[in-house]
Design brief:
Elements: E1 9-14, E2 20-23, E3 36-42
Antiparallel strand pairs: 1-2, 1-3
């Protein structure tokens, strides 16, 4: 079956909690201070969007000189 990229599933391991399998349109939140490992689960690729506040510990893409 050839499914679109946004139809794939991802596996979210957040802290020591049981892993969650997410699919298109799911909203999964990793609480501040918890480690989180997000990987493709069904299919070979996944798209995810990270949201962070200014000064947060996620990568600031503007510093990567990609543009």
């Amino acid at each position: 079956m050839n499914r679109g990229l946004l139809d794939e599933k991802t596996r979210w391991q957040i802290g020591q909690y049981e892993a969650v399998i997410g699919k298109w349109r799911d909203l999964i939140i990793a609480p501040a201070g918890f480690s989180h490992d997000i990987r493709p689960w069904e299919g070979k690729q996944c798209i995810r969007f990270g949201v962070s506040k200014p000064g947060g510990n996620h990568v600031d893409l503007s510093q990567l000189n990609l543009i």
